[in-house]
Structures are given as structure tokens and as C-alpha cells.
Amino acid sequence: MKDGMANNSTASISQARKAVEQLKMEACMDRIKVSKAAADLMAYCDAHIREDPLIVPVPASDNPFREKKFFCTIL
Amino acid sequence: MAAQEVQPNETLASLKTESETLKTKLEEERAKLHDVELHQVAEKVEALGQFVMKTRRTLKGHGNKVLCMDWCKDKRRIVSSSQDGKVIVWDAFTTNKEHAVTMPCTWVMACAYAPSGCAVACGGLDNKCSVYPLSLDKNENLAAKKKSVAMHTNYLSACSFTNSDMQILTSSGDGTCALWDVESGQLLQSFHGHAADVLCLDLAPSETGNTFVSGGCDKKANVWDMRSGQCVQSFETHESDINSVRYYPSGDAFASGSDDATCRLYDLRADREVAIYSKESIIFGASSVDFSLSGRLLFGGYNDYTINVWDVLKGTRVSILFGHENRVSTLRVSPDGTAFCSGSWDHTLRIWA
């Protein structure tokens, strides 16, 4: 019975050790400021917004889903 | 007897204390860089105009709840899977069904289109992910060519091909994610770290390298290195299960949708949550999220049958879309951003544009 208990605590200790190692690794990360991250997210949006068909609609004839006619293929 | 050596000063209690100390330190480091809120910086951005988004197509044919869908790279075909075990490939332009497969299990919770457009992958309560090559011959029995690729010890919650038809990434109720070789069925890498069922995953846009994000019932979103199997970043701010994760198109951030009725945006380089998309009136969980092409809009499908459209930068809701008659369970924007598709427990899929 003592062995069984030792195995359980060994597994928990091993798991806890892994958690500590994981946190130490995550702590080492090079982070940037939110202001810089936000600016980059905004810059990406700005660069691509004009090509975003759900924001700047393309003419209905170019969007097969907005076209009124049924889509036909010529066989 | 080979028992692992326990250092005298390393008891479970001391490791847990160290864990807590490190977590606090991590939060402090993150807080130091929290100099501003995204929506504050975005105040100067031009507001979006009025939205006219309507259901343009309704895909009817499933006999039960639609659980998952994916677009083909050709921007017109869609694969969807359902609780009744059926997987259907549709032409979204014409609403015609092109292929149908009946899986040997019910609750097909995951499906994905191969990058080549020549195959689909799916799985669910069978704990497997299987690949079906799509034949040009409509009469051919697809089920005969089925290839079992992934084997988990609990349900398959999500699957995705990597940037080729050769590898599949899966997530499972068994708490792990895994990368598989399609041809041999071999396990290439497994990803351990979630403390409960993993519900969703998304691959980083190919330019940003070999990582993916997963979300689970442990309320965590983890970012993984596909080559090493290591969890490189972890985010735990949601208050309930994370049902959906999706990368921002630049690859620098990702959004999540949760049973806590919020969607959130996490920036990977700032290593923190940078936005919450929520309203007091929204009390039902978000099941699926996806970005528009530019990343300015976030579409969220909810368990209250609606789709909320959020301004990602300003944090406000710009539109609410009605139409489904039951929970929205899955939502994806088309590859060229001209439309998005939602699937629902009302047995239908809708294309919105």
C-alpha cells in the first residue's frame, strides 16, 4: 500500500514539476506593449479594409452570392 | 525498485507554491506592458458604415443538427457534418449537394476540406478522424475509399488539414491535440497540456510559421509549437468552456468564443487579452467565431440563435443577424471573404453576404 501511495504522489509531483517548468518557460517570453500591439492590429486592418468584400462591397456582379440571377454553368 | 528521486525540499506543496508565485509574476510582467486599451487606441479609427448582410442561400438537406462546416479553397464548395451521421459536400452557389457520406457514428462534430479540394476529413463520437477522397464520379460509393487516420481515446472535437493534404491536426475530448500523417496514419506529434476536453483548434496563417491555438473546457487557450509539441503561450481569462478559436488574419492575435457569452481577442506578442466583446443582453454562449478578410469584423455564432457582428478594434457590436431557428453551432468566412456560412441545430446552413 505504501508503494501505491508513493506512485500517486510521484505522478502528482511530476505533474507539478512540469507545470513549474512550463511557467518558467512562459516567463522568459519577450513581450511588447499593448500600445504597439494595438497599433499593429489597426495597421493591418487599415491596409486590408478596402479589399474586404464584407465591408467595402464589390459590385453585385462580382459577388456570386449577391447576384440576383441564379448561377449557371455552360455545359 | 526504481522510484523517481524526490528532492528533500521538493514536496507537492512547495511545487504548488512555486507555481502560484510564477503565475503571479507572469501576470505582473504582462501588466507592466498594459499601457493602453485597444478600443482607446482605436477611437481615432473611422467608424464602420451601415451593414446590409442577409441570408443569400439556405442549404437544406441534413436530417439533424449541423455541427460543423468548412469551405473549400475554391470559395464555392462547402463540407458540413451533422448529428445524424451525414457528411455533405455542397456547391454553395447553386445549393446543390455534390456528395454525401453516412458515417458509422452519430454526432460528427468535426469536418474539414483538404487544401487540394480532393478530399474531406471528418469524425466525432467514433473517436477517429477519417479521410474520404472525393470522386468525380457521383455514383461512386465514397465510404468504400475511407481512410482512418487519427485515433483518440475520446470524441473528436475538431480537425484541420495543415497546408497540404498530407497532414491533419486533431483535437479531442481526451484532452489532447495531435498531428497525423494521412498516408500512414502515423502519429507525428501529440500536444498535452489541457486539463480537460479540447473543443477547438485553428492553425496559424502559413506565413507566421508552425503554430496553432486550441481552446478547451479548462477555460484555457493554448498556443503550440507544432514541431516540438511544446505549449508556448497560455491564456486563461474566460470564465467557461472555450468553444471556438480563430487567428486574426495577420497571425499576431486570435479570437475566442466561449460559453461565458463573451468573445475575446488575445494578442500573441503582447501576450495578453486585449479586447472583450460582450453585452449585458448577450447571455448565451458563443459557439463559433471568425474574422472578415481584413480582420476588422468578428462574426460570432451564439446559442441564442443569433449571429453578432463585432467591430474588432472598437469593441462594439455593429450588427445582429437573425434567421436561424436554433443554436448556431459553426461559422466560417469564405476563403476570399465575400461571404460567410453558418450552420445550426435547425438542420440548415446559411450563406450570408
From TrEMBL, chain A:
One of its GO terms (cellular component) is heterotrimeric G-protein complex. GO terms for molecular function: G-protein beta-subunit binding. Residues 9-75 form the G protein gamma domain. Its main location: membrane. Keywords: Cell membrane, Lipoprotein, Membrane, Methylation, Prenylation, Transducer. It is found in: Cell membrane. CDD domains: GGL. The keyword Lipoprotein applies. G proteins are composed of 3 units; alpha, beta and gamma. Belongs to the G protein gamma family. This is Guanine nucleotide-binding protein subunit gamma.
TrEMBL record, chain B:
SUPFAM superfamilies: WD40 repeat-like. Keywords: Repeat, Transducer, WD repeat. PROSITE patterns: WD_REPEATS_1, WD_REPEATS_2, WD_REPEATS_REGION. Pfam families: WD40_Gbeta. WD repeats lie at residues 59-100, 149-190, 191-234, 235-276, 288-320, 321-353. May interact with RGS9; this interaction stabilizes both proteins and increases RGS9 GTPase-activating protein (GAP) activity, hence accelerating the deactivation of D(2) dopamine receptor-mediated signaling. This is Guanine nucleotide-binding protein subunit beta-5a. It comes from Chanos chanos (Milkfish).
